[in-house]
Amino acid sequence: MSTVPPVLPRRVLVSAGMIQGGRGGVGRHVVQLVRALRSGLAAGGGPIELFVAGLDADRALFPTVDARHWLTMPASASRAVRNLIWHQLRLPRHLRRMRIDVLHVPSYRRVLWRCPCRQVVTVHDCAPFVMRERYDRLRGFFGRKVVPPLVRRCDGVATVSAATADDLARFMDLPRERIRVVPNGIDHALYFPRGEGEVGAFLDSRGQRRPYWIYVGRIEHPGKNHLRLIEAYESYRRGGGEAVDLLLAGSDWHGAEEVHRRIAASPFASDIRHLGYVDDAELPLWYCGARGVLMPSLSEGFGLPVAEAFACGVPVLASDLPPLREVGADAADYVDPHDTSSIEAGLVRLCQPQPIRGGRSRQNLLERAQRFDWSRCAEQMAALYSTNQSKSP
To answer: How far, CA to CA in Å, does 284 sit from each of 18, 245, 249, 262, 311?
Structure first.
């Protein structure tokens, strides 16, 4: 009697050594993806054994990953250059020792030049090409000259939007058919409309008693475009607009000092509030209490706050960028991020009744949000781990 040999689990290691406490878009992507992959495996979702490499400082972000499936990176690798060196020189040894079949690097800056197993990369944006002023000479050189050949060496390439896939093909000379579009998801158990009582009690506890708009994103200059937003907000208020506060939620990043100086110099400084980093437990409540969610950034690869705001039933004013159009479709309102008067006009529209805002009903927002789901993202990534692609020369 013939027997069919058992299908051995494909051993996949996800590198989470660059997630910075899960406080940025890439970090949130990695945390949610690992959670969804683990959940799928627990429900019988395919022959994969999942491992995670990361800093022990981030260990608590992965509570379902046991010690046997966790590879500790040295604390010294929390610094960018040492993190790069660890990936290039140390990680390959661990991959061989652990008999890893597939390495998933969810940040193109950490792709291995010589990988002893199949390597999959997720590219979230092509910012070094589309926003050169955001990078100093060394970081710009690395992103534009070193990264493209690294990405082309990978066995699988994923990105979070079709617009970013087009940028990848254009700037990194990667055949479009080699790129798999795997959109980000939303944790629908966390992001959903909340009752007025719950939201009101939360806002009272945080001292927020006036209506507000909120911008969720790192405090970064110039990429996140905070200075033009503040200028547009000031013009709106000087023109007699309703006294709506401007809330900025996000950790300080490159150029944050410019943003803080601009806030301090504003005649409406007392109405512009920096919340700092807001964790996942509180962020949906901030969304639900807002008059609108703002995203006037100059460059994005996806735009996760747009989808999260929709899931909470909150209107969105976003930059007219292809990735944000891809996420928001006709459910969001769009402005020219380079034109302060366009941003101001968008703020005025946010204060108008819903029918005047173009018929973007709450139901439309909620339906749009259903397109984005982390379990679907995990299924697509698991399929990519098992797909053999031909590399570019």
So the answer is: 25, 18, 12, 28, 9
* Bridge partners (DSSP) listed for residue 49: 11
Residue the block writes with tokens 């980000």: 184
pLDDT in tens, the chain (393 residues): 334 444 456 899 999 988 888 888 888 999 999 999 998 775 555 688 999 999 999 999 999 999 999 999 999 988 888 999 999 999 999 999 999 999 999 988 899 999 999 999 999 998 888 878 777 788 888 889 989 999 999 999 999 999 999 999 999 999 999 999 999 999 999 999 999 999 999 999 999 999 999 999 999 999 999 999 999 999 999 999 999 999 999 999 889 999 999 999 999 999 999 999 998 899 999 999 999 999 999 999 999 999 999 999 999 999 999 999 999 999 999 999 999 999 999 999 998 876 545 557 889 999 999 999 999 999 999 999 987 654 544
Place of tokens 């008059």: 291
List 284's β-bridge partners, or say none: none
Sheet (strand 70-73) strand order: 70-73, 48-55, 10-15, 102-105, 118-123, 156-159, 179-181
The torsion defined by the Cα of 25, 27, 32 and 35, in degrees rounded to 10, comes to 180
Give the number of other Cβ atoms within 10 Å of residue 261's Cβ.
12
Contacts of 60 (CB under 8 A, 6+ apart): none
